[in-house]
Design a protein that fits this description.
151 residues; mainly alpha; 2 domains
């Protein structure tokens, strides 16, 4: 599976309209999207005919997107039970879904920015200590400590 495939699958999962939402349905939809893309001349990075639930959930980015969307759908279902008079206007539903998608994207970008800031601080610190090559500059500040006592 290529990085392009992973990103397309993440987008597909994040844009999942509503329940039911299962790994089986995600796998089927991925295969349909790839077949549809093949008919239109677009290429995915690899052949998806053998991608199973395990293959998709084995990629942390896809699994995280799946878990996040599953939680969102569960919360939407609970909110719907609490508010039986919610607005069912299609425009509002689409706008809310778009807004929620943008909020997710913002959260992901903020997490990525935080990781970059941490990496930059590491490089600055190591450079101040006299590191010159890339391996020395990216060396972690402190060793990881296993507080659970596992080997």
């Amino acid at each position: 599976m290529t990085p392009i495939d992973i990103e397309r699958i993440r987008e597909l999962v994040r844009a999942w309209p509503s329940e039911p939402f299962t790994w089986q349905l995600v796998c089927e939809r991925v295969v349909r999207e790839i077949q549809k893309a093949g008919a239109s001349g677009k290429r995915w990075g690899s052949d998806a005919s053998g991608w199973s639930r395990q293959a998709l959930s084995g990629h942390p980015q896809i699994k995280e997107a799946y878990d996040t969307r599953k939680d969102e759908l569960r919360k939407e279902r609970e909110r719907g039970k609490k508010n039986p008079f919610r607005n069912r206007d299609p425009e509002i539903v689409v706008l809310r879904r778009d807004r929620d998608g943008l909020r997710i994207k913002i959260a992901e970008l903020e997490a990525k920015l935080s990781a970059y800031e941490e990496r930059f601080q590491t490089v600055l610190y190591n450079q101040a200590l006299g590191a010159t090559d890339a391996n020395e500059l990216l060396r972690p500040l402190l060793p990881k400590i296993d507080r659970l006592g596992r080997d």
